[in-house]
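Internal ticket #5521
Category: modeling
Description: The requester needs a full-assembly model to guide mutagenesis choices. All entity lines are attached below as received. Residue total reported by intake: 829.
Assigned to: D.W.
Attached entities:
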Amino acid sequence: MDRHPQHAWSRVLVIAAAAAVATQCTPSRPESQRSGGAVQSDLAVAAQKTYVAPGDLDEYYMFSSGGHSGQVYVYGLPSMRHLSTIPVFTPYPATGYGFDDDSKKMLGELTWGDAHHPALSETKGDYDGRWLFINEMNGRIARIDLRDFKTKQILGPVPNLHGNHASSFVTPNSEYAMMASRFSRPVPQRPVGVDKYATEYKGIIAGVKIEPTSGEMSLAWQILMPPFDYDLGDAGKLASDGWMFFTSYNTERATGKLEVSSAQKDRDYIAAVDWKAAERAIAEGKFDTIDGVKVIDPKKVPGIVYLLPCGKSPHGVDVAPNGNWIIGSGKLQGVTTVFNFEKIQTAIRNKDFTGEEDGIPVLKYESIKDAEVPVGLGPLHTQFGTDNWAYTSLFVDSAIAKWKLGTWEVVDKAPMSYSIGHLSAAEGDTVSPDGNYLVGLNKLSHGRHLSVGPSQPESSQLVDITEEKMKLIYDAFTEPEPHYAQIIKADKVKPIEVYPKEENKHPMAVWDVAQAGVTRNGKNVLVKMVAVRSTLTPTDFEVQAGDQVTVAITNIEQTTDELHGFGLLDYNINVVIDPGETKTVTFTAKKSGVFAYYCTNFCSALHQEMQGYMVVK
Amino acid sequence: MDSTTRGRFLDGTIDSRARLMVLLAVALLAVTYVLPLWNLTMFAPQYPDGLRLDIYSHTLEGGNNGQDVKEINVLNHYIGMHDLVNESFVEFQWMPFVIGALGLLMLRAVVHGSVAALLDVVMIFIYFGAFSTWSFGYKLYRYGHDLAPDAAIKVAPFMPPMFGYRQIANFEVYSYPRAGTYAMVAAILLLVAALGWTWVRARRALPAADAR
């Protein structure tokens, strides 16, 4: 040191400089989260499993709720290709939905809906491919006919029930679809201050009867419930057929800042409803009529509803394929709870109760629980595969946990990108799940796609569940906002491709160009129009200002994919008519002048010539 | 070495080389005003790029232009943690002044040139370092333990990592010193080196017999 003092100095400086550089680095993305935080997968295998060659068809349909878009999206699996959009609660100019008289009447005054939980119709607990039901927050439920993928009926807004979130879970033989209120309010509806929430506000569970051949829905009965927030549900099956299960949170009956006040109790409830007993009570006249609806009060009619304590702020409740296990997932904890239906029945028989809520008995937790499965943080929903495999989505962990019914062993976890909500397995909520595909319906995509600005799409990820380890095989991006989805084997759905002429019983249908024309009855004008390549006949018509005009357009094509449109400029009218279909649109001819109408849905080489004029005098 | 020698050493002076080392230590101390002392980075599947928090002697700074601290606070409110805000760190009010005072004491040692002055500042600096480390650890402990009883998600009280990695719920949390702390450690080492150098020089100056 004495001999080479300059060396000592330079050593100090070099060390200081090195330290300064090194310490500017902060931890980088951990190894486990490279490749975007997703399950590692063999790319070649993933590509092969998801590639559906041009001209080839997918194996499954996935019907995904469109959330507040008010629509249902149809995907093909495993390609994850978006095949079509079925408008349900929202006008959709692409198919003319919400513009023609019938669909406009069906929508009523509401032009949006928050669609949540699609439910396929079932026979003996298996999808039968006939109808798809979907609920909406404004107290409505809709039926889509899978023969033509069209919305056929919207029931509601039904009285008494507010915020129809816990819906539309269908019973094993499509006897009922269900509705339940997320928001309680005074029943019957009247202005009562929120300070009386705990006593004056009520929740409602409603049974919607499905006519077995037509699928026509009607509101059968309602049950008056304590003012909890009813969140999700599932119908019992096999062992538990005849029962419905609904989760509830805010059993604290709090108002205001619910994110704190509704999360205080360690356990909320799953409401178990004996809907066959409800049917009997109605038949025996044990109901009150409130706002035109038959309402059962469990305080007066015992034996219909029981409460199962379930921790903590439970979100999803899902009945296992055998019907004996009911799985409730407390979103603010790290376990999912498995209840045993037999034990529930025994507890009911033995009156093994720990209390009551507004006259509804609360069963003893320890007596009805089979297991608390440590699946991970923020469990939300469970779906099922073959061999007793269960799959639970974990919002906080942003992952799916795979575990076994019976042994309650958690065997695998697959990260999801990001923040998974619902998940849907191939026929995964039926009595016989297929066990090959699972789709994670994620809330956030966080830029795993080309940037499209701040309004980011949601992400739906396809997971292969045929092997021991789950494997992510495809990322798809969907419009807002998938909640639940149903995945059905493609061969169970048998859609038509044209409406057969002989089935068209529309009173204003005309199948011959010679019969097209204008008839007047006072101020009412009826235009019977024929659409066929490449003319809209009549090619012009005259009305008087102030006339009530009905244009009834029949697309007389019987060829696949020969759709025609009727767009009337400046009148906010666009109707699309499928082959063999008749649609009407009625309006008042308020504006005078000349207005062109034309075919909006490209049809043929002379599509551009398919036009005409309305003259308003 | 007897007490006379020790007394003589403390009464001695430091040479220009030792002064230069102290001056360098002052410079290193000065840069801690602009360099972060510590960093916490937390990863979760939803946060693949991590949420970053830099701690300076006078402020907290979140990554992503401060957004990360806001995000951390939003997440922490679910488990009832107090907000991470400058106002709740009393350290930020005294630390810059203590660092300044340390710098002045070092300059005093340079000007004064006495070993005693140098030894004083070394001792104060070491005490300051130890106290700050304890205070940082205590702060982390309090944050992980003072959880609001009415939080939506109840978690067991926890100690965030001070150094290294810990899994906290769905987050992988990494905590490491950053440049400011290294500069401070280097400053202490330089002061100790200056002291050591002066000691070696003083011993050499003694008659050989005395040293034995």
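Resolution: model delivered.
Comment from assignee: The two ends of chain B are 9 Å apart (CA to CA).
Ticket closed.
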